[in-house]
Design brief:
Layout lengths: L2 H23 L7 E3 L6 E3 H17 L4 E4 L4 E2 L6 E8 L1 H6 L5 E8 L2 E9 L4 E6 L4 E3 L2 E2 L12 E4 L5 H14 L5 E3 L4 H10 L4 E4 L4 H13 L3 E3 L11 E4 L1 H11 L1
Parallel strand pairs: 3-5, 11-12, 11-13
Antiparallel strand pairs: 1-2, 3-4, 5-6, 6-7, 7-8, 8-9, 9-10, 13-15, 14-15
The protein binds D-MYO-inositol-1-phosphate (IPD) and calcium ion (CA) (2 copies).
Amino acid sequence: MEISLQLELLELAKAMGREAGALLSQRPSGFELSTKSNEIDFATQMDKASEAHIVSRIRSARPDDGVIGEEGSNIPSKSGITWVIDPLDGTVNYLYNLPGWNICIAAKDNAGVQVGVVSAPSVNSLWHARKGGGAFHNDRPIKCNDPKELSGALIATGFSYDVKKRIEQAEMFSQIIPKIRDARRLGGAGVDLSYVAMGVLDGFYEYGLNEWDYAAGGLIATEAGAIISGRNGAPVGKEMTIVAGPTLHGLLSAAIG
Ligand code: IPD
Ligand code: CA
Ligand code: CA
């Protein structure tokens, strides 16, 4: 993709990330929860309001682009560009007023994700990247860490809303935790990936993420020097997401098996 188009998409993504961040920062006086796949998987009225805002901005700025959004948007692309958005990542943090909730916005074409923005006003942060153009935190260039031993690595993970997956995740966690420096569960995959990108965490893995959880943060991490993949080096996907600097990525992948 031409740099001029990447830059146009990036400016739109940053603007939408800031606007959705401002919208979500106005916390409602009460929450309306609608359940999704089961009773612990839910969206609030604010997840939906954020998605509606982002989709209407895309539709007016770039009417031929496609959109995949967690809260149900599914618009086929006529331009070859598709936006992949999580309008509120870390909904549980948001509900409890814990920091770390964020908005993930990526734009991809048939060569992959071209731009990614993670906007997290609760931690005063906006990360962005464009393919081939580096990664930035609040407009300053960032780079990931790369510890040479698992015992020197701070690793984050997350847990699914699918109870069966949680049992497998707990088993996997019990294999990893004795080998690493320590673990964190911060509550939003977009911020987890961006924290790996800037060296606030050394690595991250999670079984069962969706594309809207990792598309933006995955590009930010890659552009900061990290490797993102699935299990055993397979492409990243729903099955498994492993992100870390090149040496740690190999060690973490081997430990996950
Ligand atoms: C969730 C968060 C969480 C991760 C879950 C995701 P949501 O996204 O990223 O950290 O562990 O797997 O589903 O539902 O809050 O957008
Ligand atoms: Ca999410
Ligand atoms: Ca979400």
